[in-house]
Amino acid sequence: MVGNRESRKRGISISGLEICDPEDLGFSRDRLSRAMRVVCSYTENGSIPGIEILVIRAGKIALHEACGYAEKIPSSRALVRGMLFDLASLTKPLAGSIVAGYLVSEGLFHLKQRVSEIIPGFSRTPSGYSEVKDRIKVWMLLSHSSGLPQWLPLYRLARNREEVFEETMRVFPSYSPVSGALYSDLGYILLTRIAEQVSGERFDALFNKVVARKLGLARTLYNPLDAGFTGADIVSTEPIEGKPLTGVVHDENARAMGGVSAHAGLFSTAIEVGRISLEILSSYRSESDLLLPPAYTRSMLRRWACGDRCYGLGWWIYDRRAVEAAGDMLSRGYGHTGFTGTSVWIDPELDLVVVLLTNRIHLGRDNRAIDRLRPVAHNLIMASLKRL
Predict the structure, then answer these.
(1) What 3-state DSSP class applies to 233?
(2) Which of 218, 238, 259, 294 has the smallest number of CB atoms closer than 10 Å to its CB?
(3) How far apart are CA 179 and CA 190, in angstroms?
(4) If you average pLDDT over residues 30-54, what whole number do you get?
(5) Non-local CB neighbours of 268 within 8 Å, separated by 6+ positions
(6) CA angle at residue 245 from 70 to 209, to 5 degrees?
């Protein structure tokens, strides 16, 4: 197995998280080891280049392992723990939803406010006023129930960040707002515009102020190459014209926006994704208000809309439709996935956080091995608990 295994020294701390014996956290050590062998077999058989997995229970690390490669094309580079991954759509819950919650709690806009009240001209179309667009409210953007399409190649029409916003503003809903729910990147691009307009700050600066600085995160950021990280620190994604993207966001629309958006663009490590997730869990339990007021967090994590999935504000709410991404053994909870091969799932009842980061698209965006890995990995971890 290429990669490094977790240190067996217990009681030491990584970024403030204590490493514990899995047995002390309610896991069978042997079953957890077997689970990791199965997970890492995906790298050994070439299905997925690299995998890093982090399991936290009761705020402590039960498992943290990495295996495989950070890069295989054009040359091999081993994956080790602590590297930065392109989180893709994990940006939505970890940045978009938290920044939106902060701005709501500061009174800069409110969830039931119409988008047209914040962005003048939003309801106008080439043929005149649109009553349908005028019904779209902020919470609908966050819960994927605005009616906006899932995705459009805006980068083909836009030459810069402002033009991406302009093209998004022109898009007409594909279904009536709140009549259903369909996952939409475009809603979060609009959310980026709203956040920047009401705050007067670019979204990456907002994220740094609202999340990264408060939690002391040094490896969670947009555009890591501009911040002094090198390719050796970062896991590579899809090769473009034979050269892999390393430290440059994979999502084309986010790339056209200079790498900064609420829908994609964030880079981070397994540990720091775990840190943000634990803070959300603490807020949900009214144990912390460092990032968000607990009342807002609980509201954020309830079901706001159901369609292709059930959504909170920025998070998928676990139900039968989430089985493909999280297995069928979680008790309840919330999470999200990212196109590059990333995911996080939180089970508040079991006090459990599972972070699974891969670079599955390094072999090409059509590589679907992650669809097999995600449910298998989560079910094996759950089966490693001594008592459910």
Answers:
(1) helix
(2) 218
(3) 20
(4) 98
(5) 84, 85, 87, 90, 94, 217, 219, 220, 221, 276
(6) 90
Record the tokens describing residue 38, joined without a space.
């199965």
Tell me the Ramachandran region of residue 3: left when phi exceeds 0, alpha when psi lies from -120 to 50, beta otherwise. Answer: left
170 pLDDT higher than 60:
yes
- At residue 77, the 3 state secondary structure works out as strand
Average pLDDT over the chain reads 95
Distance between CA atoms of residues 336 and 313, nearest Å: 11
Q: 130, exposed or middle or buried, with CB in 10 Å at 0-12, 13-18, 19+?
A: middle
C-alpha neighbours within 13 Å on the C-beta side of residue 306: 9
158 in Cβ contact with 256 (< 8 Å):
yes
Residues forming beta bridges with residue 267, ordered by sequence position: 86, 221
- Using the structure block, give the residue that is written with the tokens 């034979």: 242
Provide the 3-class DSSP secondary structure of residue 25: helix
Sheet holding 85-86, edge to edge: 85-86, 266-268, 221-222
Residue 8 scores a pLDDT above 50: no
Q: Using CA atoms, how far apart are residues 334 and 338, in angstroms rounded to an integer?
A: 14
**DSSP codes, 84-107:** BEE-GGGHIIIIIHHHHHHHHHTT
How far apart (Å, rounded) are the C-alpha atoms in residues 246 and 72?
A: 12
Pairing mode, if any, of strands 77-78 and 60-71? antiparallel
CB-side neighbour CA atoms (13 Å) of 361 = 22
Query: Per residue in 57-107, pLDDT tens?
Result: 999 999 999 999 999 999 999 999 999 999 999 999 999 999 999 999 999
Handedness of CA 223, 233, 154, 187 (dihedral sign): negative
Helix, strand and coil content of the chain, in percent to the nearest 5, comes to 40, 20, 40
